[in-house]
Each structure stands twice: as structure tokens, then as C-alpha cells.
Recover the amino acids of this structure.
């Protein structure tokens, strides 16, 4: 008995499971148009800050400043040479504080999260609950008690004191994130390492941490951003001397009560954003997998 090609195609189409219906051309066009508009809205403020950074202060506040007229690098030169503020000193302070916060925060969060993920000990659930409660408080509420603690320790007005404050605020979130990631790593790896003669710390350092690089990248980036862009704690816990400020605090010198140097402020803002963008691109390939793993595994 012969079966023609049309019958075969019809039977195979009937047997094939139905998938989602394809979008119509109009719906696809509308979706892409909405995404383009949303992207332009998100990017335009950043683009305008870059444009203003090349303008003199007097021209920066015009209602419709031109894109190319009166543009120059004078604002960047003034900021980088110290003619307007101590930018390089602020940059050095921010790099030091952000680097120490990232290293100490990630190490502390990783060891804590590994212990919470692998070991069962009295008070484990209360410790997790305390981390969650800490995240509920606004940072402004913590300024006074943290100030008194640093004053008692003799660390008020110093960079190490500010690093400890940043670690205390970053570690709870980082611990929750890394615990979810460690929960996704099979415990058989730990057992195999112990069979090979590794100590518990050796298993953690040589086997588990290399597998947790996406989670470490997320927590490291979060710790860096907390220390790099935070203003309230840096204003309260650092010395008032101009050379002791961080970049986020130092930008305030461009906007005073009686004057505002918008062109110089925009130029300094662009320079401040560059290291954060560089760090983001360095870890971006780990961010999606790290965030997804830490958010869905408990």
C-alpha cells in the first residue's frame, strides 16, 4: 500500500507537539519599539552627563546646550590636576577602601556561608535570621550606634573603621547569596576531598571555592559597589579633611550653597563611574549564573 508525501507530512505535523504561537509582526514590532524607547530613556541621563562634562560651568546649565559648541577637556584637566578638588587623593582612598572591603567581605561571607551550608550547629537558624533582620534596617538608622562603636575602638575618622562598617553591611547579603550557591555544589565533593586527605579548610579552599567563582564574582562586585559609591557612612565616619574623603563624598565640593560647578561635577562623575564599569565588565560573565544560583537555591 502506497502512502503519498502529503499524507506523511500531515501525520508528522499531527504527531508533533504544539509549541507556543508565534508573535504577530505587529506585536513583535511594538515590543521592540518599547524596548528601544526604554533603553533610550535609561541611557539618556548618562549620555547627557557626558555631554555636560565637556562644557564650561556657565554653559552647562543652559536650557538647550549644544552638543559640540564650547566643548573642551578643561573640566577633566582641572579635576585630574587638582585645580578643582583633590580628586587623585579621593581616588586613592576609594580604591583602598573598596579593595579592602571586597577582599574582607568576600572572605568573611564565603567562610560563613560555607559553614551554614555544610554544617549543622546550635543557633544556625537564628544566625540566618539575624542576617535577614540586619538587612531590614535602613543604613541611616545604623549611623549613630556604629559611630559610638568606632569611637570606642578608636577607629572613628579612619579608613579601617569605614572598611569595618562597609563589611558589616555587605556581609549579610553576601552570606545569603553564597549560601544558596554552596547549597548547589554536591556534598560528595567535600567527602572526596576528605578521603584524599584534605582538611575541612583545604576542601573549602581548594575544591569548593573554585567551583563557586560565579557566586564569588557577584558578592565581590556587590561589596565593591557598596564601598565605591556609598556617601552617608563615608561622610559620617571619615575625617573632614579634604585629603581623607572618598570620591562619592569629594564630589560634594563642586556643589556648595552659593555656587555649583556643574561641568566639573559631571567630569568628576564620569571619572568616578569608569572603575565601576571596568569591574562590571571583568565579572559580567559570572553575574547572571551567580545571581540565578544564589536566588533559587536555599
Amino acid at each position: 500500500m502506497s502512502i503519498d508525501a502529503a499524507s506523511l507530512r500531515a501525520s508528522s505535523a499531527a504527531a508533533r507537539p504544539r509549541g507556543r504561537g508565534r508573535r504577530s509582526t505587529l506585536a513583535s514590532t511594538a515590543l521592540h519599539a518599547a524596548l528601544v524607547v526604554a533603553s533610550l530613556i535609561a541611557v539618556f541621563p548618562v549620555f547627557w552627563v557626558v555631554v555636560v562634562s565637556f562644557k564650561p560651568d556657565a554653559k552647562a546649565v543652559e536650557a538647550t546646550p549644544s552638543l559640540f559648541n564650547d566643548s573642551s577637556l578643561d573640566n577633566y584637566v582641572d579635576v585630574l590636576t587638582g585645580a578643582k578638588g583633590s580628586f587623585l587623593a579621593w581616588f586613592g582612598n576609594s580604591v583602598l577602601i573598596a579593595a579592602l572591603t571586597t577582599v574582607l567581605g568576600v572572605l568573611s561571607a564565603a567562610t560563613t556561608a560555607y559553614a551554614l551550608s555544610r554544617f549543622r550547629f546550635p543557633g544556625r537558624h537564628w544566625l540566618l535570621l539575624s542576617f535577614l533582620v540586619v538587612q531590614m534596617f535602613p543604613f541611616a538608622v545604623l549611623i549613630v550606634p556604629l559611630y559610638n562603636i568606632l569611637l570606642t575602638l578608636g577607629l572613628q575618622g579612619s579608613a579601617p573603621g569605614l572598611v569595618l562598617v562597609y563589611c558589616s553591611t555587605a556581609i549579610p547579603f553576601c552570606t545569603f547569596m553564597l549560601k544558596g550557591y554552596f547549597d548547589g555544589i554536591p556534598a560528595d565533593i567535600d567527602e572526596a576531598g576528605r578521603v584524599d586527605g584534605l582538611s575541612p579548610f583545604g576542601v573549602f579552599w581548594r575544591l569548593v571555592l573554585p567551583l563557586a567563582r560565579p557566586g564569588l564574582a557577584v558578592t565581590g562586585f556587590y561589596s565593591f559597589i557598596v564601598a565605591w559609591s556609598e556617601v552617608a557612612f563615608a561622610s559620617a565616619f571619615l575625617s573632614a579633611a579634604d585629603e581623607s574623603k572618598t570620591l562619592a563624598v569629594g564630589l560634594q565640593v563642586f556643589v556648595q550653597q552659593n555656587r555649583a560647578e556643574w561641568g566639573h561635577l559631571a567630569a568628576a562623575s564620569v571619572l568616578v563611574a569608569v572603575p565601576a564599569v571596568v569591574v562590571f565588565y571583568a565579572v559580567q560573565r559570572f553575574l547572571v549564573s551567580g545571581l540565578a544560583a544564589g536566588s533559587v537555591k536555599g
